[in-house]
Write a structure and sequence with these properties.
Layout lengths: L1 H95 L1 H6 L2 H18 L14 H4 L14
Helix pairs in contact: 1-3
GO cellular component, one term: spindle midzone
Keywords: Coiled coil
Protein name: RGAP1 protein
Length: 155
């Protein structure tokens, strides 16, 4: 009886084994595809990380260049203010000297006065800065999550 039961099951067991083998093959193929996808993803990750590193280097160089240019600008502005103060002192000296009014004609004196009041009054306004350059940098850095040390910007 036992042998008959095994023979009766034999046909369906064989089909079950074939079905299991097909499932194993399908699973093996899925695993192979997933391994290929994983390898491609790792390669892409390596490329993206290399690109990110290159961009970080470029960002560092750009920040350094901005810092150098800002230092140059601050030195130039300080020199400009120094020269404008000297010029103002010369104008004031010319306007106060008694010999200056005798040597200069009335027209020269009035032109000098107009130049001194107009040019130097505007030029030496406290906190004056060129409006051609926007130093805020917020439009570039606000959305990127990159920290930017601005402690030297106010010097």
């Amino acid at each position: 009886e036992r042998a008959l039961q095994l023979l009766e099951l034999g046909g369906s067991v064989e089909e079950d084994y074939i079905q299991i083998a097909k499932c194993f093959e399908a699973t093996r193929q899925r695993c192979w595809r997933l391994e290929q996808d994983g390898r491609r993803a790792r390669e892409q990750l390596a490329r993206v990380e290399a690109e990110r590193a290159a961009l970080e280097v470029k960002l560092k160089h750009a920040r350094n260049q901005v810092e150098v240019e800002m230092k140059k600008r601050h030195r130039a502005e300080a020199e400009l203010e120094k020269q404008e103060r000297k010029l103002q002192l010369v104008f004031e000296s010319l306007m106060r000297e008694p010999w200056g009014s005798g040597v200069m004609s009335g027209e020269q004196h009035s032109i000098l006065s107009a130049l001194a009041s107009r040019r130097l009054g505007v030029a030496l306004a406290p906190g004056r800065r060129s409006s051609a350059v926007d130093e805020s940098c917020q439009s570039l850095l606000s959305h990127s999550g990159i920290s930017y040390d601005r402690t030297e910007d106010d010097v």
